[in-house]
Fold:
Amino acid sequence: MADVSPSGSPLVELKGISKRYGDLLANDGINLAIQPGEIHALLGENGAGKSTLVKILYGVIEPSAGQILWEGRPVSLSSPVEARALGLGMVFQHFSLFDELTVAENIAVALTDDWDLATVRSKLGDISRAYGLALEPDRAVWTLSAGERQRIEIVRCLLQNPRLLILDEPTSVLTPQEAEHLFVTLDKLSADGCAILYISHKLEEVRRLCRSATILRGGRVVASIDPRERSARDIAALMVGNEIGEVRTGTPHVPKGAMLTVSKLSMPAGGLHGQALEDINLVANAGEIVGIAGIAGNGQSELFAALSGERLADKADAVVIAGKTCGTIDIDNRRRLGAAFVPEERLGHAAAPTHRLSENTLISHAATEVSRSGFILLNAARRLATAIIKAFDVRTPNGDPQARKLSGGNLQKFVIGREIIRQPKLLIVDQPTWGVDAGAARLIRQALVDLAGEGSAVVVISQDLDELFEVADRMAVIHQGRLSAVKPVNEWTKEAVGLEMLGIAQTQGAVHAV
Ligand SMILES: Nc1ncnc2c1ncn2[C@@H]1O[C@H](COP(=O)(O)OP(=O)(O)OP(=O)(O)O)[C@@H](O)[C@H]1O
Structure:
């Protein structure tokens, strides 16, 4: 990749950017240049320093050293407001929208006072048409799909005429069709001269979309490549420094009787815009992985809450774990039966952000070795955290950091490790590898497969169909709070799953034990 285009200076150039957190160099002398209209991927395994670099570029944090040049001129970006004024836009992984407001209102509140609702509505129409971002200005946000919500975020950026748009894992919440639609929009933006910095762990989509890529490892640039000329496997190897193997299935899973039985589970929607569960029937046997596919927002969180005991059912026998009826008992008592739970949201739900990893072991190990008579055994908690860090290759900035100081993927490895190390009889995990790099995703999937191989029942709720086809023995699809039949994975095709996800081939409520 050339640092300077034939026509002059790059749009943006990072020179020797470093960021130090205590002893850790999260970014170490990074050089990177992006030309106008270039779609540039920023790649690297979890903790490589991608978010840190992007936060520096967007004015969220200050670098410890280095310089940012914008069209050849040095700039200092001390806040996102300054970055936006310069021409940077950012679409975050987590949308920051008000559910009750309409599309146009959500856009207007994020803009400066110069924008009134009428101007927003008319410009919204122009941009929607120009970039194929169909949006109805008067629809309330809570009625929209994840793809439509993301369009609002993109339009919000585009209304400010960005010269560089940063997208952080934009397809993790999209269906394959929505992702393809997004790529068409990004291609158009690039053709109009808007540069794009694209962070993703999905290497095939990077190869489809990006013409250049910077690969970070341990805070340093290890390669600058044209991703179209490399295989996804090669790129992954550059990211981690060695080859990533396939998940080994080992001996076929042999199911040995129901560990979880869900019968006629119905539950009203939790929040105003939640999804009610209707007549869910499901069996997970010891020694198998049951996958649950579905588009986000179709009842996955509610199902997780009902299975874990974060929400209680009306009837005790709606959920049976290890032979004990437990629909009306709480999560701690379900853990005592040998069940373990990993929710989707790692920071704030699965882990307490400002507590150290050792303290975070208490969330699910309180009833076991890390506390006695209500007292925390700090040394035992530290030993346990160290064991999890070692077994699950969690990369930490120091021995026992606060959870919020870990990169997203590393925190996910810690949370999954914390549950698996207990050798649960039943593990229920929601989106196990969301935002996790290829190497860490393999480690997590392998751990799930091995756990089932050792005789535990595992339920994996995931939006990632490739993941479910790789690890699950049987699979079902959740759509609008109803579960399809549970069938052996080799009886499903991706197309059939897709139809169920859209609710076109609904088969409900069947209990299919093997
Ligand atoms: N506030 C902080 N204090 C201390 N260390 C931090 C802080 N924020 C990040 N780090 C460390 O900096 C390193 C780089 O983290 P960063 O979040 O930039 O990685 P990443 O490549 O974005 O990872 P992921 O793909 O998991 O999001 C990690 O080792 C992380 O633990």
